[in-house]
Amino acid sequence: MTAQPAKLLVLPGDGIGPEVMREVGRVITWLEKNRGLAFDITEDLVGGASLAEYGEPIRNEVIEKARAADAVLFGSVGDPRWGHVGFEKRPEVAILKLRQELELFANLRPAKVFDALVDASTLKPDVVRGLDIMIVRETVGGIYFGDPRGIETLPDGTRRGINTEVYTTPEIERVARVAFEMARKRSGHVCSVEKCNVMESGLLWKEVVTDLHAREFADVKLTHMLADNCAMQLVRNPRQFDVIVTGNLFGDILSDLASMLTGSLGMLPSATLGAVQSNGKSAALYEPIHGSAPDIAGHGIANPIAQILSFAMLLRYSLNLQEEAKMVEEAVSRVLESGLRTADIMSDGMARVGTSVMGEAIVRELDKLQK
Ligand SMILES: NC(=O)c1ccc[n+]([C@@H]2O[C@H](COP(=O)([O-])OP(=O)(O)OC[C@H]3O[C@@H](n4cnc5c(N)ncnc54)[C@H](O)[C@@H]3O)[C@@H](O)[C@H]2O)c1
Ligand SMILES: CC(C)[C@H](C(=O)O)[C@@H](O)C(=O)O
Ligand SMILES: [Mg+2]
């Protein structure tokens, strides 16, 4: 690690966000005490928490702090109490704006099944044992951001909601490049997913990925699949996949689906990597794929593992702390082997624990790994 402490911006957000982020705090304290690492941490409000304090889901000041940081650790945003504030001001704007402003275009969502959790998966143990899929989701384009958009009222009083899927050649190419490069470090297969049978943006997607493959990545195996079939194939035979590259909306849906192969939405971390910015830094944001889970917020029962594994991805990708990243992942694995389970991954014969006991147990395993 460099002599300078790593500058982290921590944005816990809403609902279970702050609850699971607290457990990352334990891991950070442990790393500082036991591995000689130094972190320069700034924390701020986003989402409903920011709306309550400042009247907006994210302040420009926070976006600038994110730009200046070595990495951003994000919790989750979304709060039913802010349903009335209007579309532009909903809490979710915080994460959308961060992705867009920092050009965080490649969202890596690994769905990896821990051996101890094969019974927690919705699929049969033999189908998911050892499963390790990487979904590369484009996150600054597609139907999330395309124009025109909005809700309009026609002369006869009918209302019309409009969103538009738009992808340009460079947007497709840069995310496909990330996927191909990733596949080279893994088992060498990329499956590109779109709906070219009904969408022009999907047709262009397929053409651009195919051209890039022929030009630069002929050593990688490339296959194509329609998104609806992909959803079915992920449940039927997930082992056929290694890296999946897809657009914003399909990636959102397919990664939630893939999380259940691993046992729970509470298990899936993510890293979103961006383009080099004008300040010379490449932005990176780390967050679990789950949301603020209002149904369980405040009960102390949320699974903190997705947030902790997101921090492990931060150690690996942004700080190049490979050993520490592996230690955190190994500590999670050992805690699961020991039989501790939060409610979402509970199965017969295991010990049910809450968020903080799970976090403490992971830190105790780090202690053992250090000895
Ligand atoms: N990146 C983000 O900030 C993000 C991601 C997804 C959803 N959201 C927002 O979160 C809010 C709630 O959305 P939702 O309910 O559709 O999705 P959600 O991901 O919050 O929850 C879906 C289900 O999974 C469970 N769950 C999620 N994370 C869990 C964890 N760590 N441990 C145990 N159980 C967990 C929840 O209890 C719920 O039953 C919405 O406002 C949505 O927009 C935000
Ligand atoms: C909260 C929402 C904007 C977000 C998305 O749709 O991208 C979430 O579902 C995610 O998966 O990160
Ligand atoms: Mg989602």
UniProtKB/TrEMBL annotation:
PANTHER family, per database record: 3-ISOPROPYLMALATE DEHYDROGENASE
Main localization of the protein described in the UniProt heading: cytoplasm
Subunit architecture: Homodimer.
Cofactor binding remark: Binds 1 Mg(2+) or Mn(2+) ion per subunit.
Protein name, UniProt field: 3-isopropylmalate dehydrogenase
EC number: 1.1.1.85
Subcellular location: Cytoplasm
Catalytic activity: (2R,3S)-3-isopropylmalate + NAD(+) = 4-methyl-2-oxopentanoate + CO2 + NADH
Annotated site, Important for catalysis, chain positions: 144, 195
Any GO BP annotation: L-leucine biosynthetic process
Species per Swiss-Prot/TrEMBL record: Acetobacter persici
UniProt binding sites for substrate: 99, 109, 137, 228
Involved pathway(s): Amino-acid biosynthesis; L-leucine biosynthesis; L-leucine from 3-methyl-2-oxobutanoate: step 3/4
GO MF: 3-isopropylmalate dehydrogenase activity; magnesium ion binding; NAD binding
Function: Catalyzes the oxidation of 3-carboxy-2-hydroxy-4-methylpentanoate (3-isopropylmalate) to 3-carboxy-4-methyl-2-oxopentanoate. The product decarboxylates to 4-methyl-2 oxopentanoate.
Keywords: Amino-acid biosynthesis, Branched-chain amino acid biosynthesis, Cytoplasm, Leucine biosynthesis, Magnesium, Manganese, Metal-binding, NAD, Oxidoreductase
Residue ranges of domain Isopropylmalate dehydrogenase-like in the record: 7-362
SUPFAM superfamilies per the UniProt record, alphabetical: Isocitrate/Isopropylmalate dehydrogenase-like
UniProt binding sites for Mg(2+): 228, 252, 256
Necessary cofactors: Mg(2+); Mn(2+)
Membership in a protein family: Belongs to the isocitrate and isopropylmalate dehydrogenases family. LeuB type 1 subfamily.
Top EC category: oxidoreductase
A GO term from the CC aspect: cytosol
Positions that bind NAD(+): 291-303
The UniProt record lists the keyword Manganese: yes
